[in-house]
């Protein structure tokens, strides 16, 4: 059987097998909670049958649902944050050309939008900002904002530039400020959940600020190919979430190696 026919048949089998489950569901109001419960039941059923192992499916399913179906971070009121941690998203190739290994990329329009988001938060509460350099450049040039600490890339003696990962930025914030207080995390819409998780993994108490819309328009000219299109970025982010989850679960299962 070719792959197309295989997946068509599998989908039909799954749908048919799910009908008794759906028929047995109580008459929930069409709420998010009800939809999530229904999704959980369907995923457990499908995965349990596919693995022929309901017990393992029950362990794995919550991780798949969280990584693949939950894109909203926990939030806290702006009034309750003590500082901002802002993570960049994408960039643009160096405007003047040159070796990109030794010439800084341009911040790009998405990071300008992230700077605008920080400015909106600061209108509600003036708190220190720890911003990845691509965002910090706009906070300085566009807003002349005070109390901004720029998290810079690492530049070697030979001029080679090492850009920081999301975790690398969080580590720098801890090194410069410590972990006290509550961080309000600013990040691109599809990145911000992982930004909050990464900030917490570095020991900080972290939330996205409630009521603040994060930028969500992709830049097709970004110097990072995975940040040019939403479908590609979601795969990238799920891969990154799974990598962190994998390391945590292995360490939990075998703390002594």
Describe it for me?
There is one protein chain. The chain is α/β, with parallel strands linked by helices and 257 residues long. The longest helix is centred in the last third of the chain and has 24 residues, at 230-253. The protein has two domains: 3-69, no CATH class; 75-228, Rossmann fold (3-Layer(aba) Sandwich), CATH 3.40.50. It has eight helices and eight strands. It has a six-stranded parallel beta sheet, with helices on both faces. The chain has a two-stranded antiparallel ribbon with strand order 5-6. It is globular and about 55 Å long. Helix 1 crosses helix 2 (32-51) and helix 4 crosses helix 5 (133-141).
User: So how many helices?
Assistant: 8
Strand order of the largest sheet: 1-8-7-2-3-4
Q: Cα distance, first to last residue?
A: 43 Å
Radius of gyration: 22 Å
Beta strand %: 5-15%
**What is the structural class?**
alpha/beta
Strands, count: 8
Protein name: Lipoprotein
Organism: Arthrobacter horti
Keywords: Signal
Signal peptide: 1-23
